């Protein structure tokens, strides 16, 4: 299903041109217009899903192997030494386009810090209490 108001639906289905690096029946993979590093790519399903919670399970099962394939190709083609697979869900998590997508971000030795956080602290009791809250909703 497509959303006629969604820019990533239009890009994924070829209605708006993009720097495409891969395409199959389920996905188009494009270069990000505002790359965090050289080669930063976005994996877009051709159907519209707002986020990972809405994603079809068959499409989901294909998405991570595709991210691995893209990352491996980046290492060979661009000489990056690693890559991040990042996926944002919800405004508070940094999602700005509400069509599910996976970022594959090449990382170069000596490159800038990104996709990181400062480790916090939690007591064993806090961890147990939080784990219980989540477990009860699964
Ligand atoms: P989000 O913040 O939702 O996880 O990521 C959205 C990403 O899409 C951003 O990195 C942004 O640079 C990229 N982006 C937004 N609009 C376009 C577009 O029209 N074309 C391309 N190639 N990338 C886009
Ligand atoms: Zn869409």
From TrEMBL:
CDD domains: HINT_subgroup (cd01277)
GO BP annotations listed: nucleotide metabolic process
PROSITE patterns assigned to the protein according to its UniProt record, in alphabetical order: HIT_1, HIT_2
GO molecular function: catalytic activity
Superkingdom, natural source: Bacteria
SUPFAM superfamilies hit by this protein: HIT-like
Signal peptide: none
InterPro entries cross-referenced by the UniProt entry: HINT (IPR039384), Histidine_triad_CS (IPR019808), Histidine_triad_HIT (IPR001310), HIT-like (IPR011146), HIT-like_sf (IPR036265)
Ranges spanned by the short sequence motif Histidine triad motif, renumbered to the chain: 99-103
Pfam families the record matches: HIT (PF01230)
Active site: 101 (tele-amp-histidine intermediate)
UniProt-recorded name of the protein: HIT family protein
């Amino acid at each position: 299903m497509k959303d006629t108001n969604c820019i990533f639906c239009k890009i994924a289905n070829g209605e708006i041109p993009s720097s495409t690096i891969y395409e199959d029946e389920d996905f188009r993979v494009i270069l990000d217009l505002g790359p965090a590093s050289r080669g930063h790519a976005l994996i877009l399903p051709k159907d519209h899903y707002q986020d990972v919670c809405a994603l079809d399970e068959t499409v989901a099962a294909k998405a991570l192997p595709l991210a691995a394939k893209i990352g491996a190709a980046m290492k060979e083609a661009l000489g990056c030494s690693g890559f991040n697979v990042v996926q944002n869900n919800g405004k508070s998590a940094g999602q700005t386009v509400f069509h599910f997508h996976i970022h594959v971000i090449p990382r170069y030795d000596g490159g800038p810090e990104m996709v990181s956080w400062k480790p916090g602290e939690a007591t064993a009791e806090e961890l147990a209490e939080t784990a219980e809250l989540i477990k009860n909703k699964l």
